[in-house]
Specification:
This protein has 886 residues and is of the alpha+beta class. It has 25 helices and 27 strands. The relative contact order is 0.03.
Length: 886
């Protein structure tokens, strides 16, 4: 404890030392402050006061008063070293130097060297000179203060403070010694008592007689020791009980059949019971320190364990959770019922306790019961659907839906066998299709399998499927295929269920097919009876009417009704048949089994009609006639038409003969008039060509060109009329020659040159020289002339391009223009005789409508083809001609 006392004394001395050091530095700061602040302020103040005091005396040049004022100031302030006053020229008027004015200050007396403050060193120490001017700079006051005298005053005051501090230090040391002793002795006793308590000695008392805080502390310490002794005794007793409880809980912990584990917030297992080790099948050493992800939640994806781990959800919410989890221990699938809660350990850290129960067998039994219930539900649904719906598509669709729901498969298809082709046809599919290349085939038993999606195996490479035959007895009507992207193992029980479902659907399909066939046959027979345009009735071998059609009812014109004659005897309904001995015809059919046909004129209900009747026997399996179908056709109108046709035919023959005579006269007239017109026209064209070669005035040439163009036009018109006559008489003769198509086209373009130049329309030819055709040159020139002339005529601005090439062993010529174009719906009609796209064009552009018709006939005669293409603006005419045979 003496060390504590020493530390107290040393601490107090250190404090006193720091106070003294602080005092010293404070004195230094005060000294600097006095020199820098108060000393300077005093110098300026003395200079200014003296200047104010002597200004009036200076103005009246009263040197005595000035000197008196200066000496009074110097005597009043011992720190003043000197004072001198100068006039405006720097001449010293008054000074306080006893030995005369020093030469060293002569420069400072000059007005230009006057400063507010000037510091310089002299033999007497550092002098601070403070200068100030008199009124309007008529003179200057200079006061010099000695810094050394001020410092001596400060030093004297500092010594006095130091002596006081040393005295205080001595008195403080004495005080500290006695105070320290008074404080440390009780503390020493308290320290000894604490040491005894530390050794377990609690029955003691610390004697401190003072009534101050230390005495109170000693009494509190004694009470604490007594209380602590009592608490320790209680704690020992409680510890013994706790140890007994821990042993009991530990025994209970290990005896519980459910597995129990305790984990920290890092998911690490820090405690477990024997049942948990038994469930997972490993030792305690292998479990401790492992996380729940490594042992229990191994099926969670590693990258998202924290996101899916129930432990994290528990830590976030703080609420107990219970859930089922499926995992694998020692290659065995185990289903766990897990109940998790959170608690705080002794340090306040959150821990998780999990109670784990192996419910695998219970779940297997539960799933088996659920599966059986689902199977029964599906079978009931299918049976109910079959009984309620007599529709194959609906039965198959609902059945497939129930099978997919039962098996949890993703995709299903239903195929039925086509009766005609015998092939399986897809009629229904449900779900998302799995990857497979399934080729449907007929199967007789349930087929289970799996396939691979890729050549190189991958994680999700395999898919499962099952094929269920839909059959009744040994006949297969189709199959149902179900598949999944996941691996699925079907049990023998499921195969039996699939087979039962397939047989049930197969029987339903067979029944519906039989019903549909019967229904179809009945409807088909009724449809035949009611939709043929012939009267018809069916009788049995006793001539009892079994059925009649609508046409027979119409034939009677409302005299009989269907319900009145069915199941009645034929002769009772139609008594006139007996009069015509029709009964013998029926007897012949029944006896011979042959068809009997007749055509006759009869009286039918007060009306004479002509009928054509056929009696057709229907035989039973034994070969005897069982029924007779009678087909009656009313041919009265036909008979009338035959008579009218005979009369019309004779009239037509006479009319046709007259038309032939008229056509012959027309052809002769056209031939004669054409020849008569061509002869003088040829002369006109020849003479106009000669005249155009002469020297003519522009006006004359223009008129001659008009005559020449119209003559050529008239010549072409006459030729078109002659060609029309030749084509109509089917007497178009071709004189074929081998020619280079390029030469032929150039000749046509050259002939049309004047017409193209007059409209400023360039004609471009792009045809290889090697293209050769075998044609009637004159006829082909006529074709190209017609097309090129039309192109020039119908093109306002632009150009005409003629191209040629080989196209599949044929010569292809295409003539394109940028003219007004041809509507798409009229591209075929333009090759008809006398057809023009727009009648207004006839007045605007002229023409007879024969050019393209003649061109097509000529190309057809060559074994070629001509057609046109147009898209709103511009047209292209295509001509295909056969390649010459070598």
């Amino acid at each position: 404890m003496s060390s504590l006392r020493v530390r107290i004394i040393v601490s107090m001395l250190a404090i006193i030392f720091l106070i003294m050091a602080g005092s010293y530095f404070v004195i230094q700061d005060i000294e600097v402050g006095i020199i820098e602040g108060q000393f300077r302020n005093e110098g300026f103040l003395l200079a200014n006061n003296l200047a104010s005091e002597i200004t009036d005396d200076f103005l009246i040049n009263d040197l005595v008063e000035i000197r008196k004022s200066v000496e009074n100031v110097k005597n009043s302030y011992p720190e003043i070293e000197y004072i001198f006053v100068t006039d405006s020229q720097g001449i010293v008027i008054v000074h306080t130097f006893e030995d005369g004015f020093p030469k060293a200050l002569m420069d400072f007396a000059k007005p230009e060297n006057v400063r507010k403050e000037e510091i310089f060193e002299t033999e007497k120490g550092i002098i601070h000179e403070f200068d100030t001017s008199l009124f309007k700079n008529i003179g200057y006051v200079h006061i010099g203060l000695s810094e050394n005298r001020v410092r001596e005053q400060i030093l004297d005051a500092s010594r006095k403070i130091l002596f006081l501090a040393i005295g205080a230090m001595i008195l403080g040391g004495i005080f500290i010694y006695f105070i320290g002793k008074r404080l440390t002795e009780p503390i020493l006793r308290l320290n000894e008592g604490a040491k005894r308590i530390n050794k377990g000695i609690l029955d003691q008392k610390i004697e401190v007689s003072s009534n101050d805080e230390l005495g109170e502390l000693a009494r509190t310490f004694n009470d604490m020791s007594s209380t602590l002794d009592q608490k320790i005794k209680e704690l020992v007793a409680s510890k013994e009980k706790t140890e007994d409880a821990e042993k009991y809980l530990e025994t209970l912990f290990d005896s519980i059949e459910d597995g129990i584990i305790v984990m920290n917030i890092n998911h690490e297992i820090i405690k477990m019971n024997r049942s948990f080790l038994k469930i997972i099948g490993i030792t305690e050493r292998e479990v401790l320190g492992k996380t729940c992800h490594e042992l229990i939640f191994t099926t969670l994806p590693s990258q998202s364990q924290n996101a899916q781990c129930p432990v994290d959800r528990l830590l976030q919410t703080g609420q107990s959770i219970r859930f089922m989890h499926e995992t694998r221990f020692n290659a065995r699938t185990t289903i766990l019922d897990i109940n998790s809660s959170m608690f705080l350990d002794k340090k306040g850290n959150p821990n998780i306790i999990m109670v784990i129960r192996d419910v695998t067998q219970h779940k297997i039994l539960e799933n088996e019961i659920l599966l059986r219930n689902r199977e029964l539900t599906v079978l009931n649904e299918i049976s109910k659907n079959i009984s309620e719906a007599f529709d194959i598509d609906r039965i198959v669709s609902k059945s497939l839906e129930n099978i997919l729901k039962l098996t949890n498969m993703e995709y299903g298809e239903t195929y039925l066998i086509d009766d005609k082709s015998g092939k399986l046809t897809l009629i229904n599919q449900q779900g998302d299709k799995c990857y497979d290349s399934f080729e449907p085939g007929k199967v007789n038993e349930v087929l289970i399998g799996k396939g691979r999606k890729n050549t190189v195996p991958t994680k999700n490479d395999y898919y499962s499927y099952a094929i269920i035959p839909l059959k009744s007895k040994d006949k297969v009507f189709g199959i149902i295929k179900i598949s999944s992207n996941k691996s699925h193992i079907f049990s023998g029980r499921e195969k039996e269920l699939f087979s039962a479902i397939g047989n049930q659907i197969g029987v339903a399909i067979e029944n519906i097919s039989f019903y549909d066939n019967v229904k179809y046959l009945k409807e088909f027979n009724d449809e035949i009876l009611n939709n043929i345009n012939l009267a018809l009735h069916v009788v049995d071998k006793d001539l009892r009417i079994l059925a009649v059609n609508d046409e027979l009812i119409k034939l009677s014109k409302g005299r009989i009704k269907r319900e009145e004659i069915v199941n009645k005897n034929l002769y009772d309904v139609f008594p006139f048949l007996m009069e015509r001995h029709v009964n013998m015809e029926y007897e012949h059919v029944i006896t011979t089994g042959e068809i009997f046909q007749s055509e006759e004129k009869i009286q039918y209900y007060d009306e004479i009609i002509y009928t054509s009747t056929s009696k057709i026997p229907i035989k039973a399996k034994n070969g005897f006639v069982e029924r007779i179908i009678t087909v009656i056709e009313d041919v009265s109108e036909k008979k009338k038409l035959e008579e009218e046709l005979k009369d019309s035919y004779e009239e037509l023959k006479l009319t046709y003969s007259k038309l032939q005579e008229l056509y012959k006269i027309k052809d002769n007239f056209l031939s004669s008039i054409s020849h008569e017109l061509r002869t003088p026209l040829t002369s006109v064209i020849g003479y106009t060509e000669l005249m155009l070669d002469e020297n003519l005035t522009p006006k004359q040439r223009h008129k001659i060109e008009i005559i020449f163009r119209n003559s050529k036009r008239l010549h072409r018109l006459i030729r078109a009329l002659l060609d029309t006559q030749i084509i109509n008489s089917s007497n178009l003769q071709l004189t074929k020659e081998t020619v280079v198509i390029n030469d032929l086209i150039n000749a046509v373009v050259e002939d049309m040159k004047n017409m193209a130049v007059s409209k400023n329309i360039p004609v471009t030819i792009d045809i290889p020289d090697r293209l050769i055709v075998e044609v009637d040159i004159e006829r082909l020139i006529e074709v190209f002339s017609n097309i090129v002339e039309n192109a020039i005529k119908f093109t306002i601005t632009g150009e005409i391009i003629i191209r040629g090439e080989m196209d599949n062993e044929k010569v292809h010529i295409a003539i394109s223009d940028t003219g007004i174009g041809i509507p798409e719906d009229k591209l075929e009609k333009i090759f008809d005789r006398f057809y023009q796209v727009d009648s207004s064009n006839k007045r605007r552009f002229g023409g007879t409508g024969l050019g393209l018709w003649i061109s097509k006939k000529i190309i057809d005669a060559h074994g070629g083809r001509i057609w046109a293409e147009s898209k709103n603006r511009g047209s292209t005419f295509h001509i295909l001609l056969p390649k010459p045979v070598k």
